Every structure is written in C-alpha cells, then in structure tokens.
Records
---
Amino acid sequence: MADTEQTSPPPRQGPVQFMLSNKLETAMWLSRIFTVYCSILFILPILGLPEAANFYQRALLANALTSALRLHQRLPHFQLSRAFLAQALQEDSCHYLLYSLILVNSYPITMSIFPVFLFSLLHATSYTKKVLDEMGPNSMGFMRNFLNKLTANQQNILMFIACNEIFLMPATIFLLFSGQGSLLQPFIYYRFVTLRYASRRNPYCRTLFTELRVLVEHLIMKPSCPAFLRRMCLNSIALVSRLAPTAA
C-alpha cells in the first residue's frame, strides 16, 4: 500500500525568532527602515521640526551602515589589496557607501535623498514580506498590498533613481559656484556616476544616459533649433561620451 501521508510544511518560527536567526539581514532591514523614516521627515517635515537637515545626515549615515553591511555580506573576507578594492568597486553597495560619504556633510538638497530613500524602501520589501509570513499568511493585508504595488512599480522607481543620480552631477557643480559646495565634491561624485554607469547589476543609469542622448539629438536636429544651441548640445554630448567609462 502506497504511503499517502503528506509532508506538512515546516512550522513558523514567529517574527521575533525569525529575525534573531537572521541577524545580519535583520540589521540591514532595521537600518533601511530607519533610513526611510529619516528621509520622510526630511522630505516632508510634517511636524515642522527645525532640525530637518539633521534627518538628512541621519538618513545618509544609516544608508552608509546598510551599504557597509551589504558589502560585508557580498565580500566577507576583507583583504588590503588592489584586487580586493577593484572587486569591491564593482558592487552596488560600495557605490552607495561612497554616495553617502560624499553627501553626508554637503548642503542638503531633496534630490540627493531620493535614491537612498527609494533603494531602502525597495530592498526592505522582500524581508518585510518574510516577516509578515512568519506572523501569518493573512496578516496585515494592507501592508502586503502596499509592498506588492512597490514591487510592481520597481522598474519605474529604479529609472527615477537613475535620473536623480545623473542630474545630481550638474547640481554639485551649481552648489560649488553658489558657494554651498566643496571643490572636490564634483570630481568625487563624477567617480560615483562612472561606477553607476558601469554597474553590472543595475543597468538603469546607462539606459537613461542613452535615452537622454537620443532625446536631445532628436530635439536639436529640428529646423527650429538655433544653430548655436545645436553646436553646444553636440559638443556636450561628445564630451559626456568621452568621459563615459567602458561598460562591463
């Protein structure tokens, strides 16, 4: 007689025990939630807090902590070598660790907080779902619906993040000439943009650069476009193309 007994699913651990058994993932999840919290208080100072700029720094520092933990997870064996540094610079977590360190002491602008806010929100989604599953399959339905909507719009959110990454480059130059930025910041941020352009995991920055080039070329080739503006745009496109790194 065939054995018809079905294997029952493993019992749930409970949310607290689940988080304790995944300490590194839990630490990154909590730091991402804190990043989202501080970002919201900076972007929408609904409480009228005078120290809104402090939340800007806290969000970037929390993101730096998350990025450092994620980098340790990806490359657990640290080595003081050029090869290890080259390998680390290929990781997106290293890019955003650098991003946070570049901007943490700069003049706070809303555009620069959106990437860390949205990345933290997106990356916290999958772990939040796991925590909700440990609470029960039907727990907090409104939260599950919100997380599902985030996942469904992930591509649009990543394109918006890439747009912020690109347009922060001229913003750092503007801050320099307005007296609110440092001389080194545009050069260091340029290095960040080149890392994002050559990213193996996230092609959205590279895709958006291509789409912007096609759009600008389409507009300036219209007969109504002044000749001097056409020449200026073509020279700018040529400059950006020369500065672009070789994609991986």
---
Amino acid sequence: MFLLLLIAAFTLIVFYIKWNYTYWQRKGFPYHEPKIPFGVLDGVRKREVSLGTAVYDVYRTTKGKVLGIYLMTRPALLVRDAQLARDILVKDFENFHDRGIHVDDENDPQSRGGLFFLKGQDWKNLRNKLANSFTSGKLKAMFGTIENEADKMVNYLNIQLADDDTKQFEMKHIMGTYSIDVIASVFFGLEVNSYEKPNNEIRNVSQKVNEPTFGSVVRGTCQFLYPSLEKLFLRLGWREEAPNMMREIVKRTVQMREEQNITRKDMLQLLMQLRNKGEISPDDNDWSAKVGKGAPKPMSIKTIATNLFLFYVAGYETTASSASFTTFELAQYPEALEKAQRDVEEALQKHDNKFTYEAIQDMKYLDLCVMETIRKYPGLPILNRQCTHDYPLPDSDLVIKSGTPIIISLLGLHRDEIYFPDPMRWDPERFVNKNYDPAAYLPFGAGPRHCIAQRMGKIIVKVALAKLLLNFNIELSPVRKEIQLANFGVPLIAKDGINVRLSKRKPKQGA
C-alpha cells in the first residue's frame, strides 16, 4: 500500500509539473520552450550567465511583442515591445503598480517598510514622503560632500602615479571605492576613506552584498523573481548578514545624533526628520530633526535602516559601474574623450573655475556620455512588475491575468537595433541626433515607480568623471574590445574588470 501511495504521489507531481509548464500554451500566448525545472534560469543555475543576461539571451533569440517564459515553475511574461513596456510603466500603471517581489511583514523586517518592496498605498505614502529628499536644493546642499569624496579619489590616483608615469588601473575598483565613500558620507554621515582604510564597516557590508557565491546568486534571483522561495528561506532561518550589519550602523549613528543633538546635511538626517516629525521639510534650509522630549515618532529606526540599505545597494553598484564603464568607453573613442574633457573645462570657465552644482549641470556632453553608458550597460538589466488587474493586451485577444509577473529586459531593449541602430557602438551623439526610439530608453524605469534617486545618482557619477577628466589622460589597455559580462549577480558586472591606463594631466583650476 505504501509503495502504491508513493507511486501515485510521484505520478501526481510529474503530472502537475508538466501541466504547469503548459500554462502559456493553454492561455494562447507565444512562449519560450521551457527547460524543466529551471526554465529561463537554467543558465543561472549552471553559473553560465547572470540573471540579466539569461533573460537577455531569451529576448534576442525570439520575436514578437510578448513571450511567455518560466522562472523555474513560475510563469512570467517577457515584454519585448518598447511602447508596450512604457505603457505598462506609465499609462497603464494602475494595472501594474507592484513589483511582484518578496514582501514578508511577519518574518522579514528588511522587506517591511522598504520603498523598493512596498505595494499599493503603502508604497505611494512612503514615496510621497521621501520625494522632498531629492529636490535640487537638497542635492545642492550635499554637493560639497560629494566633491570631497571625489577629491579623495584624485588624491589616491596622484599618489599611485609619478608625474611622467602611465599606469594601468582597474576602474571598477577605483570607482567602487569612491562609490562606497560617497554613499557612506552622503547617506550615513560617516567618513570612512576606503582608499586608506579598505577594511571599514561600510565596505564590509558591500562585500557581503556582492560576494559571488552560489548562495548570493540564489538569494538575489529569488528576491527579484521567485518570492515564494525567498519566504521559505527566511522561515528556515537562512537570513542575509548585510542588512543586519547595516541596521546596527544606522541604529548607532541615529542614537549618537539624537543624544548629542548633531545636525548634518545628508540623507540620514532627512530620514531622521521623517522619523521624528512625520515629514521631510520642503524648506531646503531646514535640516533639523529635533522634537520635544517624549513626542511620538512615526517611523522606526528599522524602517530608516531598511531604506538606507536599499539606497546603498542600488547606489553603490550602479554608481561604480556607470562611472567605470564610461571611463572604458571614453578610452576607446579618443575624439569623444577630448570632447568630454573640453566640455568639463568650458563648464568650469562659465562658473569662475569653481567646481559647483551649477557647473556640473552645465556639463552637457558629459551628461550625454553617461546617458549612453547606462543605455549600453543599464544598472539593472531587467525591470519587474506584477499585473494587479486583468489587462487586455492591445491589438490582440489575449489577456494578462492578475498576479502575472512581468519582466522587461532593459539590456534587450537597449541593445536592440530596431530601437538603437548599431547598438553595440557607444555613441553619445545619438541623443542629439535623435537616432533612437525614446520609448525604448528606460535606464531608470519610467512612470510613478521610476528610480527616485536618479538625479542624485547622475550627479555622483558626473562629479567622479569630471574630476577624472580634469586630472588624468585616459588610454585604452591595450586595444579596442567589448567587455565580457560576469556570470553572477543581478547588476551587470565586467567579467575581467574594467582596465584603462592613466597618466597625469596638467592640473586645471577648480579641479
């Protein structure tokens, strides 16, 4: 009898798996033939490709506006049409307002209260409260801190280079160190100087987040695309170390500021203001978070830590990658490099050779360079949403059912010759010549759920690049080539690093 029950159970499981993998066929959608049991994640499982490139491989080897795919046993819809993708993010946002990622209010404080994770009205409420953190006035007030960290990078490189020396540097390391320092200072108010003290606590958090282990690959993939497994991992007691490390840092810093009545112009101060007063002041000159003794506090330190950790994780990798990829591409195109250097110098001349927030805004060609880099190398290679109401697919009889995960391959759209002619050529001028389809350009997402910190991110990247261009010559090492992408992680990571050769330029006033 036991043997019969075992056979029956096994038969039912096999039947269910086969039936599940006919979901898109039954719904009448075009579909990608699944590799059971991992679907499009089979290459990720084998450590052959990263998550973003696995989805990109499916995008570029198929046709049509939409394609049914499988994330292990979970059916998801890959959107391949740029205008449909933009409509989902903007015009039809009410049908796709959630990300469809792991949220567990009971067991996971990391997902509770985090802007990236929240759904529906909870997300909308927090988003509205955080909006005043990124006004021009707030960013201008933090600009001096950003510049100071870029100067540390320049000082480090100057020490490494003799006056007439040319030396190879791995730019992801250089820009990653800058990114850690600037985020530590601007977001947490901590001066860490990772060039001199590489084993500081903020850098340790980064190493935990980005370590290329099998466990990190599994957790990163599940948090994005398979939330049921992430919930199971947490209930089994498998918790990530980095968020806990960050919570301790934030708790200690908040308590010190409150006890010593310290006010600093950074993101932590603004979140303390939100915690203590229930709002971030629209007055760009008001940074006080002080309230009366015993007054109720609408936000917990855990929620502050969760959001700062999310800003840190998103900001560290995208800043380091965008700046280092741009450096690499400038080295490949000497004419663009010369034009970028001239752009930076002319912008400074307009502002009395002072390195200011306004001067950075006037570096228009440098802005085009960054725009083209995040086109070719989007910080996050996919966007994910979840259908929250049944959605009739335009110009068809098909209906996307509520609860369906939606995947948009930014790497696919941004490297599709239909939308960006000669897509593998790095060409900042394409945005001036209008040689692209604007609907397909989505490096920060679009619509109400676009990246809230995109302006800050671009400023941090442009400051680093401007300082580099003013102070150093950049050469390719050794010949023009395409970067190979690593087989791990959610963001795009260069397989063998990003190597260029630097030598000193004659210092410019304001540099």
